[in-house]
């Protein structure tokens, strides 16, 4: 981890001089002579070291009076991996800001979700990121506005409010300040390939840090896809999205240097949230070099990493949905879990229209599932109790699972539910809550892999051996799973 890397001046200078893309998002370079800020991999001739200053966020650069570089577009670089590998106040706040909470609920709403005062949240964010929550949300709004300006034919007034600005004047002023161009000129300069969207869909490129191995990432999503909610079609994973202002349908396809993303939204105000959730789903802000370098230090894992580096943890766009599906998948096959979930979708999901056909529903919200007659569930009685208790607590707010969850606390709350053992709690921690150190020593696939590789196969002994893989045990799980021939480990043909 490189917490506070912007303070390591010599290291930052070397990264800029070598144009190292691995550091994009970790810090930003502001140039004193031009008043422009860039990503470390900017293709222009690097400035003299004495003219460089370094900042931890785009918002901090903007607050210091720098504008975004037109060549490297630092506002579009992958997000800092820190927010996905930490569970402290700042990381939880950044995940909530990315999910649009400040725009919808303001700073008091952000602080309330975190359980701190607004003053405490402001102080900690400024201390670490050089900007408060309003400035961080403003930088995000500017990036959303840029995407809409460059990729849609929407009128500027529509874009202003869709991006979360309170007025057209604020929108115009912010775009000019951040990008040194008025919105109309941003649109005029947009590559023609980006302006041909039809049918209300937005075509985007989601960046990531290389390497990225798509096999287990898309293989897992495709193999476990719930009919009506998800599908694999023409080389892309498609699914419906429940969003704050409406719903959407997304198509995600792996490309050598980006993820091709096509979004259809019922309300453009959901664009920022939809992008954030898709990035979390595919773990695109991970730092695969840091992960793989540590796992390679184990002689058993090293050949697995060298064979297929850059594995990501397949996650989710809806934490409550994943928790429900984890219960449906307890002690049954992947096919049986899909069947159980599909029945719930047909009976209780919200119907949606898919312009391309194939997708029919949103996955049922906990509120829609909380009134189910347990006798209608085709599962053992004890699992019915597990299911109804989970959806009941999710529906009434007793149990909250989200990007702001405190990982240890959420895991403890899950383990207190009837029928929840370590496997269910940890798979939710890993794939829904995003804990990069979640581990599954009791998982059958992990135990089989351990036996084949000569690792300890009992949960206690394997956990002890896996201590050397911390804080990346969730990624070690992906490499161990990949030793099996299950469809989840292969990119669908």
Report on this structure.
The structure is a single chain. The chain has 23 helices and eleven strands. It has helices spanning 9-17, 58-63, 82-85, 89-98, 101-114, 118-129, 133-151, 156-162, 168-179, 183-189, 214-223, 271-281, 288-295, 302-307, 319-328, 334-348, 366-369, 381-396, 407-415, 422-431, 444-453, 459-465, 473-481, and strands spanning 28-31, 36-38, 52-55, 67-68, 201-206, 230-233, 236-242, 247-254, 259-265, 350-351, 361-362. The chain has 493 residues and is α+β, with helices and mostly antiparallel strands. α4 (89-98) packs parallel to α7. The model has no long low-confidence stretch (mean pLDDT 92). Helix content is 46%, strand content 10%.
Q: How do the strands and helices of this protein lay out in sequence?
A:
Layout lengths: L8 H9 L10 E4 L4 E3 L13 E4 L2 H6 L3 E2 L13 H4 L3 H10 L2 H14 L3 H12 L3 H19 L4 H7 L5 H12 L3 H7 L11 E6 L7 H10 L6 E4 L2 E7 L4 E8 L4 E7 L5 H11 L6 H8 L6 H6 L11 H10 L5 H15 L1 E2 L9 E2 L3 H4 L11 H16 L10 H9 L6 H10 L12 H10 L5 H7 L7 H9 L12
Helix pairs in contact: 4-5, 4-7, 7-9, 7-10, 8-9, 15-18, 15-20, 19-20
